[in-house]
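B., you asked whether I could sanity-check this one before it goes into the benchmark set. Here's the sequence:
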Amino acid sequence: MLVNVTIQTFMSENELELSDKRWTDVKDEYLPTLYELGLERYTTTRIWNKSDKHQLGHIFEYRDKDAMQACLPISNNGMMFINSIRWKK
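And here's what the prediction gave me:
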């Protein structure tokens, strides 16, 4: 088992909540492919130990190194997509 922990730090609580909602809205488009490629488990958690920071932790557990290498381009693309969405007026 190989574990990849990605921590996102946001400027505000609102930005954290927006990112979490964006990921919730699209994760079903990405996760099935990741599971097929060897992702064993995925979870998102709120990091609370820093009162002045707004952070999410994404924990990806892969079957092995090959599975992680196959999944990283897809999961990175998903996170970049989430972070690139802007509010429309």
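One thing to flag: Residues 29 and 78 are 9 Å apart (CA to CA). Otherwise nothing jumped out at me.
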